[in-house]
């Protein structure tokens, strides 16, 4: 925790020149004692080694070994995580594992270090737990793919990166994981690289994320140098958070700027407006990847990061306001697109964007534990929904159009039942996981006085219930619209795929019970558990009276159930209704169907001009401007040379004379 | 004597190789490769004996050369030159080994010239006398000239002419500046061309300006900084693979090294005043290089423009005038040598197979040559500065430092991180993803053992510096601190300190 400045003679010198006051390190974080423990490094290292082994398997063409290693290492990491979490709880503080000094150029001093506190403990259990189930599912799903070993290598590398991200003790170590998961996402989206559309989608994901990452980097630099000026040259989370108040007193504008820059980073990784555009395209990857990376884990990284820096965020009302608005807007915007999509995975993708919007909204209204709560329940039910979609795809030979499904429940009872549970959970039907977490977010928005955001969130909730049940009814209920070829081969998926579905369905039901409303049974245990790791708003959170809470719950539940019924009515009872509505609001439908034309707008406003400008630079500036001038000079030199050539008489004596004169001049100049 | 041994070993080796019979070529190839291991071993000894805690010159040697003019044979090494020396001795055997598949005519001469080039570059890096530096600097041109002119591509005449014209016009002015500086030093007391003593030569403000301009021009061309960069894509495209690797790996670094060793510390006040111009050119180069690289149809040209972009980062770091920026810059010089060297080698491998470098000729290569594709991916990631690779460590420190010195430049340069990903990933996609569209690519063989031996050491270094850069940074930092203290003494202190400690939001 000691500032590196003390060791840094020149820097201290420079700083003192400008009259910067060096404060003694402020030990705000003193209430948390860190116990040293080298088990933490094992957690990311296990899947990392698994990845290397799978690459070797891929090179050796040995798929069956990779199939064993990959889930095995994640299971081992889950076990290690359990041990670490128990040990952390026993130590009454956080665990710290400082592996080695990574980059040290004073005043920069970055350790490769991991830290486990209550916030990261929730995350590592989700990552390794849900991650293991998805690895297991992948064994069945990828069984016939000859590139299976390479797939598992990437998936293991992803798990390792994600664990580095949440265990990272400092912003730069988090950033290693942050970019690492981005790389794996790129590789896995484009896993079936022979189709260029997949490669394009991967590339789009990487670049959209890089835009966010650039802002993230700038935020890091801005934060770091300000901390240096305050005598705390560190990017460790504990130091940043301990200095948050001092920094706010010293330069409130910096806190806002840093928080907003990190928010831009989060809009990339957590797919928020304006950088969300990559996520729907990311569905090009294998479906288990969509479940693990693009629903349960990676996309929540932005939310995690903001929660991690919650002590900083609470100091900027402006930044919090913008975070909340971005979250609420994304929740509504993406849900509206999901209303009309026909591709099951696209529906789920926009749903994910929308649900991430809820988490960001929770951060923005200061309900950090509610954000983590929804992050967790969403990991369960959205991973479940994606894996169900994968199961359907498996049976339908890649068909994803819900209008070409129908009645699948008969052939695929387990998939249908688990999808229904997932749908009930995301729709916010009482006692299922999503009900508690979403309600808590809406309640917090209302309690904070953000009534407009509450209404937006409510609208998005209505849409959520509608689009997910539209998908359920179209795919699993009613008459079959499956073509004859596919209908003949419809089957339930093998146990390696259905077991994860059942486990996740169970979690989607009970997962919310750790966060019951205040005063009901054991209350919100998760909030209690996370409290030491998260900040609270400076003015404290507002408590609503019991009556208001009940009223709010009744309203949201009623709206959710009404939406479910509307979907039931429009798609099962009177199937013609949907087309009728569609025709009546043709313009709006077109706008939604075309996703508000955002891709086209970005293309026209940014990508095409960028390409054209680059072409122009090359063809005009480089070739005609700079080189034109150079070639002109060359021609001129040539012409002069032609004249000078006449001086070259071939007479050795005249050369000697010129040399002599030259030498004499030089001597004169040098020794005058 | 160690430094002299490192410099002269390749030169002596070149003479030995020259004395060998031209046929069979295998003899010359093997001999040259084995000889090139000698400087590598010697520099390993240097590395082992180098005192990481000392920031000043080590292993200095001093002998009188032209006493009447005060010219001496002075050499030494510090944290700035150490890793560039290592890079040079590391890349040369790799390049010689790579030439086995690439160079088939006049093999012996090629090997000789490469060894000569190595000696000249090393000479430049250890020189502590300005005249000595200049001699090596100019000598270096000849091997490069012949390497491109003899083994180059179809348009090599134009490329060599342009290369020589650009470089010579820069160094001609530098020679005048060197002589003038020596003259002023003689006026002030003792005639000497020792670089470290010339740091103290009294000069008027306008003298400093003109002298700095002359030195800076020579180095700006060499780096190259926009708009003086147009010789580079042509030289790279026409050069044989080995020539490109050395050109990008070491030769260009002598431009940035020149700033670090000469232009800035000789004339610090002016150099400091040129900050806005230089940082502007650096940031402009980062963005411009990245944009033009995007639209190149030829792989080598794309990599050449990427060098313009990457060296913009290095220049920016030098002009941050702080520890993070300068140290990061020195590391990034090495990083760029490794990753761009690796890129040129990989492009060379595929060129040997298909005799074209047009990106449109490829596509879907992953399914044909997976090992090649995987290694290309790692090098691509290093080039775009992914954490865990060397590129990140260098860029991170440079941007960190630059942001301190000039937040707007630092922030703009950070956008280069996005643009770099755009052109490299697009290249990667077009070459490796999709179906194999060109039947000529179906029968491509994956990397041979020799080719793996060429490329794997580079990949190992890329990951090593990315994951554990401490051994490198530890030896750079003390020199940076000596350098900065030295500058600080001579730049108007208030301005300098303000640049280093500017704060925001107050």
H/E element string of chain A? Answer: HEHHEEHHHHHHHHHHHHHHHHHHHHHHHH
Percent strand of chain A: under 5%
What radius of gyration of chain B results from the CA coordinates? 22 Å
Q: Which percent band covers the strand fraction of chain B?
A: under 5%
Number of strands of chain A: 3
Q: Quick one: biggest sheet of chain A?
A: 3 strands, mixed
How many separate helices of chain A?
A: 27
Helix content of chain B: over 70%
Largest interface: A-B, 75 and 83 residues
Q: Tell me the strand order in the biggest sheet of chain B.
A: 1-2
Number of strands of chain B: 2
Alpha carbon gyration radius of chain A: 30 Å
- Overall SS class of chain B: mainly alpha
Give the uncertain stretches of chain A in residue-range form: 1-30
Q: Terminal Cα separation of chain B, in Å?
A: 55 Å
Q: Could you describe the 3D structure shown?
A:
The complex is a heterodimer of chains A (672) and B (506). Helix content of chain A is 71%, strand content 4%. Chain A has 672 residues and is mainly alpha-helical. Among the domains of chain A are: 30-169; 170-315, no CATH class; 608-670. Chain A has a three-stranded mixed beta sheet with strand order 1-2-3. In chain A, helix 7 packs antiparallel against helix 9 (252-269) and helix 14 runs parallel beside helix 19 (451-476). Chain A is globular and about 110 Å long. The N and C termini of chain A lie far apart (63 Å). Chain B has a domain at 274-506. Helix content of chain B is 75%, strand content 3%. Chain B has helices at residues 2-19, 25-49, 79-102, 107-126, 130-139, 141-151, 156-188, 195-198, 205-222, 231-238, 241-266, 268-273, 275-294, 299-318, 323-354, 370-383, 390-405, 407-432, 449-467, 470-490, 493-501; strands at residues 58-66, 71-77. Chain B has a two-stranded antiparallel sheet. In chain B, strand 1 and strand 2 form a beta hairpin. The radius of gyration of chain B is 22 Å and the shape is globular. The termini of chain B are far apart. Mean pLDDT of chain B is 90; it is low at 501-506. The interface between A and B is large, with 75 and 83 residues.
């Amino acid at each position: 925790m000691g500032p590196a400045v003390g060791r840094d003679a020149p820097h201290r010198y420079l700083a003192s020149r400008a009259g910067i006051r060096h404060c003694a390190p402020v030990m705000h974080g003193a209430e948390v004692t860190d116990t040293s423990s080298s088990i933490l490094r094992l957690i990311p290292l296990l899947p990392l080694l698994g990845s290397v082994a799978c690459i070797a398997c891929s090179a050796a063409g040995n798929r069956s070994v990779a199939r064993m290693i990959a889930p095995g290492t994640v299971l081992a990491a889950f076990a290690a995580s359990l041990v670490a979490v128990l040990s952390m709880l026993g130590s009454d503080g956080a665990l710290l594992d400082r592996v080695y000094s990574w980059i040290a150029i004073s005043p920069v001093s970055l350790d490769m270090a991991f830290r486990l506190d209550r916030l990261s403990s929730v995350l590592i259990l989700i990552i390794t737990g849900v991650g293991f189930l998805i690895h297991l599912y992948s064994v069945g799903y990828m069984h016939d793919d000859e590139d299976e070993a390479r797939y598992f290598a990437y998936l293991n590398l992803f798990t390792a990166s994600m664990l580095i991200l949440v265990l990272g003790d400092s912003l730069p170590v988090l950033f290693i994981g942050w970019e690492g998961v981005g790389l794996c996402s790129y590789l896995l989206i484009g896993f079936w690289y022979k189709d260029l559309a997949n490669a394009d989608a991967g590339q789009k994901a990487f670049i959209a994320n890089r835009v966010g990452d650039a802002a993230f980097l700038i935020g890091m630099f801005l934060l770091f140098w300000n901390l240096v000026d305050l005598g705390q040259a560190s990017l460790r989370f504990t130091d940043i958070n301990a200095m948050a108040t001092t920094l706010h007193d010293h330069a409130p504008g910096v806190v806002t700027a840093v928080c907003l820059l990190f928010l831009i980073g989060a809009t990339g990784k957590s797919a928020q407006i304006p950088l969300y555009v990559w996520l729907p395209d990311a569905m090009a990857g294998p479906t288990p990847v969509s479940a693990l990376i693009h629903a349960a884990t990676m996309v929540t990284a932005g939310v995690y990061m903001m929660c991690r820096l919650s002590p900083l965020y609470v100091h900027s009302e402006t930044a919090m306001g913008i975070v909340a608005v971005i979250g609420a807007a994304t929740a509504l915007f993406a849900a509206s697109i999901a209303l009309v999509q026909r591709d099951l995975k696209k529906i789920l993708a926009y749903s994910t964007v929308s649900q991430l919007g809820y988490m960001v909204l929770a951060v923005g209204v200061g309900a950090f534990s509610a954000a983590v709560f929804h992050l967790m329940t969403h990991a369960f039910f959205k991973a479940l929904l994606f894996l169900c979609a994968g199961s359907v795809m498996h049976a339908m030979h890649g068909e994803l159009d819900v209008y070409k499904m129908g009645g699948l429940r008969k052939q695929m009872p387990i998939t249908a039942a688990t999808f229904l549970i997932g749908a009930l959970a995301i729709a916010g039907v009482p006692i299922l996981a999503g009900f508690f977490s979403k309600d808590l977010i809406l309640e917090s928005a209302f309690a904070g006085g953000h009534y407009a955001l509450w209404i937006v969130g409510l609208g998005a909730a209505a849409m959520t219930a509608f689009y997910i049940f539209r998908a359920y009814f179209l795919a699993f209920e009613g008459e079959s619209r499956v073509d004859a070829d596919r209908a003949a081969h419809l089957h339930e998926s093998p146990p390696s795929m259905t077991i994860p579905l059942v486990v996740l369905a169970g979690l989607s039901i009970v997962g919310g019970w750790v966060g019951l409303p205040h005063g009901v049974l054991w209350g919100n245990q998760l909030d209690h558990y996370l409290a030491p790791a998260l900040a609270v708003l400076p003015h404290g959170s507002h408590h609503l009276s019991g009556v208001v809470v009940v009223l709010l719950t009744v309203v949201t539940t009623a709206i959710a159930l009404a939406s479910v019924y509307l979907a039931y009515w429009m798609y099962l009872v009177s199937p013609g209704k949907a087309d009728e509505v569609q025709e009546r609001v043709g313009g709006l439908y077109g706008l939604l169907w075309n996703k508000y034309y955002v891709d086209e707008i970005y293309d026209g406003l940014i990508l095409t001009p960028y390409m054209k400008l680059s072409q122009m630079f090359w063809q005009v500036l480089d070739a005609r401007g700079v080189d034109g001038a150079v070639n002109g000079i060359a021609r001129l030199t040539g012409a002069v040379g032609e004249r000078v050539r006449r001086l070259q008489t071939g007479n050795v004596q005249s050369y000697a004379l010129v040399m002599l004169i030259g030498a004499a001049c030089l001597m004169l100049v040098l020794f005058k | 004597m160690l430094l002299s041994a490192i410099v002269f070993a390749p030169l002596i080796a070149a003479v030995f190789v020259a004395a060998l019979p031209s046929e069979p070529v295998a003899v010359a190839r093997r001999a040259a490769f084995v000889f090139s291991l000698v400087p590598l071993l010697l520099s390993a000894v240097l590395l082992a004996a180098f005192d990481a805690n000392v920031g000043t010159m080590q292993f200095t040697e001093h002998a009188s050369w032209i006493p009447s003019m005060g010219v001496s044979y002075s050499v030494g090494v510090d944290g700035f030159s150490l890793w560039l020396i290592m890079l040079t001795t590391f890349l040369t055997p790799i390049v010689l080994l790579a030439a086995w598949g690439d160079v088939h005519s006049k093999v012996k001469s090629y090997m000789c010239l490469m060894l000569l080039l190595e000696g000249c570059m090393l000479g430049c890096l250890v020189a502590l006398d300005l005249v000595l530096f200049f001699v090596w600097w100019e000598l270096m041109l000849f091997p490069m000239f012949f390497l491109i002119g003899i083994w180059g591509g179809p348009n090599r005449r134009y490329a060599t002419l342009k290369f020589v014209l650009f470089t010579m016009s820069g160094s001609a002015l530098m020679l005048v500046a060197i002589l003038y500086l020596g003259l002023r030093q003689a006026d002030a007391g003792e005639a000497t061309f020792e670089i470290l003593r010339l740091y103290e030569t009294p000069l008027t403000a306008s003298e400093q300006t003109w002298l700095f301009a002359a030195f800076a021009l020579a180095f700006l061309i060499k780096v190259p900084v926009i708009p003086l960069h147009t010789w580079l894509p042509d030289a790279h495209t026409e050069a044989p693979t080995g020539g490109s690797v050395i050109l990008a790996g070491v030769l260009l670094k002598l431009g940035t090294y020149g700033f670090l060793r000469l232009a800035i510390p000789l004339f610090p006040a002016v150099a400091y005043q040129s900050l806005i111009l230089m940082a502007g050119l650096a940031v402009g180069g980062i963005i411009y290089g990245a944009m033009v690289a995007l639209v190149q149809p030829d792989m080598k040209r794309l990599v050449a423009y990427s060098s313009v972009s990457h060296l913009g980062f290095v220049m920016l770091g030098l002009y941050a005038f702080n520890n993070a920026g300068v140290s990061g810059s020195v590391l990034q010089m090495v990083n760029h040598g490794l990753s761009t060297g690796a890129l040129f080698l990989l492009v060379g491998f595929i060129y040997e197979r298909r005799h074209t470098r047009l990106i449109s000729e490829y596509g879907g290569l992953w399914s044909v040559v997976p090992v090649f594709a995987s290694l290309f991916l790692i090098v691509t990631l290093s080039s775009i500065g992914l954490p865990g690779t060397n590129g990140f460590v260098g860029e991170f420190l440079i941007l960190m430092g630059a942001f301190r010195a000039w937040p707007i430049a630092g922030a703009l340069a950070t956008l280069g991180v996005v643009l770099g990903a755009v052109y490299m990933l697009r290249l990667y996609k077009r070459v490796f993803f999709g179906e194999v569209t060109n039947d000529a690519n179906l029968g491509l063989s994956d990397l041979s053992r020799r080719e793996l031996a060429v490329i794997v050491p580079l990949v190992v270094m890329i990951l090593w510096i990315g994951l554990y850069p401490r051994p490198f940074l530890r030896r750079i930092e003390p020199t940076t601190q000596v350098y900065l203290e030295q500058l600080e003494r001579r730049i108007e202190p208030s301005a300098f300190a303000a640049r280093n400690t500017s704060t925001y939001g107050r």
